[in-house]
Amino acid sequence: MIKKAIFGGTFDPIHIGHIHIAYEALYRLKLDEIVFMPTGNPPHKLKKYVTDGSLRYKMVKSAIESEGKFTVSDYEINRPNLSYTYNTLEHFSKLEKDTKWYFLVGMDCLMDIQNWKRVDDIFKLCQFIVFNRPNFPAFTKESIKRQKKKIEDRYSTEIIYLNAPLLDISSTTIRKNMREGRRVDYLLPENVSDIIEKFGLYR
Ligand code: ATP
């Protein structure tokens, strides 16, 4: 059976922290493909800090081009407003019925999963692969273990914990550093830096 993971995010911009964790998941879990899924444009009133979907998509596409098992989907950015994870998973599992779907997320997301739309069904459609986030002091070994067990029991699922080293980088820090005129090129794939430069992003 083909094993694919969806890796959703704003990716504003995509950075080497994202690529690194995606590669760890690909390699360690022997996945066939990781589908990067940039989120859609938020509704008008929330929009002010998010770069347009087409540019975020372009950055992801160029960031992953050297890894044949990484792909990017424009499914969410082509839909009006933000998509629910449930709808995206439902779409892809209908499209590829013989694929085993995984969903790759940071621990920060798992902490508030109870608030997601149709969370019971989400766990029927895919298996979660969760990794820790650096710089989240609340996520101790114990709290992660507790939350993982709680979700597993509640939704009759099994969560894969990806115990990989992490790079302490965030898109927020990159945007902030750029506004302050600091260099960020070593935190980004070269192609992404080129696109940022070309379109004058984050100035
Ligand atoms: P922002 O700072 O704008 O919130 P971000 O860097 O956290 O952005 P997102 O696009 O929101 O990036 O994240 C997409 C996914 O990547 C999420 O599951 C998030 O947990 C994960 N992620 C973000 N940064 C890292 C990192 N340095 N290492 C591993 N995973 C990360």
Can you describe what's shown?
The chain is α/β, with parallel strands linked by helices and 203 residues long. The chain has one domain: HUPs (Rossmann fold). The protein contains 8 helices and 6 strands, in the order βαβαβαβααβαβαα. The longest helix has 15 residues. The model has no long low-confidence stretch (mean pLDDT 93). It binds adenosine-5'-triphosphate (ATP). This is Probable nicotinate-nucleotide adenylyltransferase.
Instruction: Give the full name of the CATH homologous superfamily.
Output: HUPs
Shape label: globular
* Main beta-sheet strand count, sense and barrel state: 6 strands, parallel
- Overall tally of structural domains: 1
Beta-strand content estimate: 15-25%
Q: Would you tell me the overall average pLDDT?
A: 93
CATH top level assignment:
Alpha Beta
Order of helices and strands: EHEHEHEHHEHEHH
SS class: alpha/beta
CA radius of gyration is 17 Å
- The total strand number stands at 6
Write the layout of secondary structure elements.
Layout: E1 2-9, H1 16-28, E2 33-38, H2 53-63, E3 70-72, H3 85-95, E4 99-106, H4 107-111, H5 119-125, E5 127-131, H6 141-155, E6 160-162, H7 171-179, H8 190-199
Parallel strand pairs: 1-2, 1-4, 2-3, 4-5, 5-6
Helix pairs in contact: 2-8, 3-5
Bound molecules: adenosine-5'-triphosphate.
The site of adenosine-5'-triphosphate has 18 residues, from helix 1, strand 4, helix 4 and helix 7.
